[in-house]
Write a structure and sequence with these properties.
single chain, 14 helices, peroxidase, globular, alpha+beta, 10-stranded antiparallel β-sheet
């Protein structure tokens, strides 16, 4: 384990209060005599203690444990036929980026080697405002309807009575929502334990819309493939590291960059036309499914490179806020129900966690363009508040105007408005393909063993529901075969009857 130390900085001349006043004594409070009480006039003490009492901000509800770094995105292939966004303007163009990696369910102090999806969020500081691609290391997710997101997250967190991690909650939710099966299978495969952040792929996961200069739209998925090669931890190594080095992934990323070994990822898109989407055998906006690479091949675009560690973790990583609604012209949302839900949820949680003016924080500020709007004031307004410009629209004075060329593309919506149940939208076919065609025999065995080891912590009736689910179909027998050594006879009988 590499020892970390402070970076060499120019030594300041004077120790000061937050207001900049020099401090003469930092070791002793002002008292009435050597044994007397504290005087309220000890402003250096009050300044120090009052700030200390307010150091903590709300923890992220999900993705609390994480690390990140800064670098650039470079365009290596022209995709202007699909997208007019300036970030893809020409081959060779570079754009500053920030990337935050994370686990999902654990708290800020939890281990980053646990079996859990990994967040892989990229902020592009583009010429037309920030673009936030809030992805994961998996191309899919547990659910497809945003209404279920709070309940899903609660099921992965602590029991509200015992405050303990609860396998019953986890497996109860998963077994009651069969659309989870694809992501759960991915999670319990080898890739559920990536060896740090550098050796895993990233995905935008959602379906997005790209628009070219002629305002012709296509649907798109984003992929970023690690150039360090895929490496995963063995379960026993991940468990050991969780106790001996719970910050293993953060340390590995920081050390690699500090030593000049800059990690990189090749950036790709998949493209689907609107006509293809109409004929697609599944809902093309279903976050629990992938698009076949044979039918919709990866198109190379560029590369992501990380070459700078944060100068201060809190300022640049803890306050780093990603919002999927941050899309520059040329990139738009699709009807993906989970994406639509996140368009509201993410900026809403940042306003709670960081404050109304979180976009004025340096790490979140769109510094490559100027912000001109009619928003004013609010707590912690840190800039010039747009000076004396009018704060209403329309107006007759010098103030920003709309630009018609940036109006979003139109799209048709024909069905009746209602609440549509998608629980049974073929939750099996792609899981079977993943299990039988993507994984080899040894990987299939490890998946079953990993799943069995976790499932045994749940109550028997939940075990029965999971292994006997009709959604497993022919996969059930394979799962059950590897589950038998640790399963009860009642579970075996249920599986065999299925």
């Amino acid at each position: 384990m590499m020892a970390m130390s402070f970076l060499p900085l120019q030594r300041p001349d004077n120790l000061t209060t937050g207001a900049g006043h020099p401090i003469g004594d930092k070791l002793n409070i002002i008292t009435a005599g050597p044994r007397g009480p504290l005087l309220v006039q000890d402003t250096p003490f009050i300044d120090e203690m009052a700030h200390f009492d307010r150091e903590r901000i709300p923890e992220r509800v999900v993705h609390a444990k994480g690390g990140g770094a800064f670098g650039y995105f470079e365009v290596t292939h022209d995709i202007s036929r699909y997208c007019k966004a300036k970030v893809f303007e020409h081959v060779g163009k570079t754009t500053p980026i920030a990337i935050r990696f994370s686990t999902v369910a654990g708290e800020s102090g939890s281990a980053d080697t646990v079996r859990d999806p990994r967040g892989f969020a990229v902020k592009f500081y583009t010429d037309e405002g920030n673009w936030d691609l809030t992805g994961n290391n998996t191309p899919i997710f547990f659910i497809r309807d945003a209404m279920l997101f709070p309940s899903f997250v609660h099921s992965q967190k602590r029991n509200p009575q015992t405050h303990l991690k609860d396998p019953d909650m986890v497996w109860d939710f998963w077994s009651l929502r069969p659309e989870c099966m694809h992501q759960v299978s991915f999670l319990f495969s080898d890739r559920g334990l990536p060896d740090g952040f550098r050796h895993m792929n990233g995905y935008g996961s959602h379906t997005f819309k790209l628009v070219n200069a002629e305002r012709q739209p296509v649907y798109c998925k984003f992929h970023y493939k690690t150039n360090q090669g895929i490496k995963n931890l063995k379960p026993e190594d991940a468990e050991r590291l969780a106790s001996t080095d719970p910050d293993y992934a953060i340390r590995d990323l920081y050390t690699s960059i500090a030593n000049g070994k800059f990690p990189s990822w090749s950036f790709y898109i998949q493209v689907m036309t609107f006509d293809q989407a109409e004929k697609f055998q599944w809902n093309p906006f279903d976050l629990t499914k992938v698009w076949s690479h044979n039918e919709y091949p990866l198109i190379p675009v560029g590369r992501l490179v990380l070459n700078r560690n944060p100068a201060n973790y809190f300022a640049e990583i803890e306050q780093l806020a990603f919002d999927p609604s941050n899309m520059p012209p040329g990139i738009e949302p699709s009807p993906d129900k989970m994406l639509q839900g996140r368009l509201f949820s993410y900026p809403d949680t940042h306003r709670h966690r960081l404050g109304t003016n979180y976009l004025q924080l340096p790490v979140n500020c769109p510094f490559r363009t100027s912000v001109s709007n009619y928003q004013r004031d609010g707590p912690m307004c840190m800039l010039d508040n747009q000076a004396g410009a009018p704060n209403y629209f329309p107006n007759s004075f010098s103030a920003p105007e709309t630009q018609r060329q940036h109006v979003e593309t139109r799209f048709k919506v024909s069905p009746d408005v209602g609440r549509y149940n998608s629980a049974d939208d073929d939750n099996v076919t792609q899981v079977r393909t993943f299990f039988t065609e993507v994984l080899n025999e040894e990987e299939r065995q490890r998946l079953c063993q990993n799943m069995a080891g976790a499932l045994k912590g749940a109550q028997v009736f939940i075990q029965k529901r999971w292994v006997s689910s009709p959604h497993f179909d022919s996969i059930t027998a394979t799962f059950a075969h590897f589950y038998f050594p640790n399963s009860s006879s009642s579970v075996k009988s249920v599986v065999w009857r299925g």
